[in-house]
Amino acid sequence: MIYNTIKKLATYALEKGLITEEERAYSINLLLDVLNLDEYDEPSEEYVNVDLESTLKEILDYAASNNLLENDSVVYRDLFDTKVMNCFTPRPQSVIDKFYSLYEDSPKEATDWYYAFAKNTDYVRDYRIKKDLKWTSPTIYGDLDITINLSKPEKDPKAIAAAKLMKQSSYPKCMLCVENEGYRGRVNHPARETIRIIPLDLEGDKFYFQYSPYSYYNEHCIVFNEKHIPMVINEPALKHLFAFVSKFPHYMLGSNADLPIVGGSILTHDHYQGGAYVFPMFRADKVCELEFKGYEDVKASFLKWPLSVIRLESIDKEKLIALSMKILNCWREYTDEESFIYAYTDDTPHNTITPIVHKRGDTFIIDLTLRNNITTEEYPLGVYHPHQEYWNIKKENIGLIEVMGLAVLPSRLKGEIEKMTTLIKEGKDIASDPDTLKHKEWLDNFIDKYDISTEKNIEDMLKAEIGKTFMKVLECAGVYKQDEKGKEGLLRFVNKVNSL
Ligand SMILES: [Zn+2]
Asked: pTM of the prediction?
């Protein structure tokens, strides 16, 4: 039986172009080593269009029943099947050569191939991503995109216990370090044997390009510094964004802010995130046009968007970088008590920017999202951070992806929606279940306004209200609210920029 599975997997690798016929015996022998087998007897059955998920499951079941897994749980299965797929994954240099030979003809062909490759090697687990829940929610700002991501496996108790007992390791220093390529992983660090990274020159600085294994949106990529150095939003960072979008005009690229609370989850390693996706923010209307002295030919506007965004457009990227730096430098030092914006408390800085660059035709567009991470007694996690009444849906930082209007909600919500739907349909109190208790107050705010006669209606109601709550959470993160007072505050800041 295991020989049939081995043959299936070798057939899959050939079908997807991961190996050539000349590499077939070699790859099978690597796999025999992983499976601790001394020989292989080729079965006579022929296979076509091999399904990866079910084939890997056969191998993993074999591994589990032959004591090749430390524990039979998703964490150990993921470590093991990555080792299996590495037997069929080309070496880094040949991937780099292929990418750049395609790039010479067309950047899009290069990324199309590279993304398909990342899925074919199972580094991006496409069959998991396809199970993600996705919907759009209409709001006054246009449709927002909501996803519940299921591709990040939740750790099982055994894996959590094993991770606690492990000695602290600083290799690789973080999830983004170049040393991840080929790393076998451990219970507290994912296997990265099948990742292949592409070197990039951005304005003379060495970066690497890879896809996110969780693919929060189409072709979700990460561009990271060759060095493990902290994130910082400064002129080189803006230059990197423009350099990347110049090289890959069909991709956007943005950076998380460089301060805690308003930043992303990894501030210790300089990196950006991009991809081929039209985010809701890109379609946003404007509240008004803006004018910046000395940059009259740069189209500038204040976006109609829950967060506070200044959009600059021009075909001249040098001008956009210069004006963006002027705005950033002014914002860092800017205090406006009337708008509750404080540049510092004691020596701690609060103001920063989440910048995002994309291209439309020949025009470069940079969105500068004004951020502030001040905390108060009333809002200990941040004034411009999701407020407590929304924590049942979203408590974490509003990072780059969410700034652009795509919610990446925790996988627990999927089960909670299902439980709530059942309880409501049966006329029961959702507070009766410990998993859905936290949604009780939230639900009471709107349930009377809906027809809840069918299961579908109930589910639609919950999804619509999750979308509305996401919008409110984004509004929390806006330093200038979308009203007259907010607009006046923003214009005061623009005047300050123009006075410099
Ligand atoms: Zn690192």
From this structure: 0.95
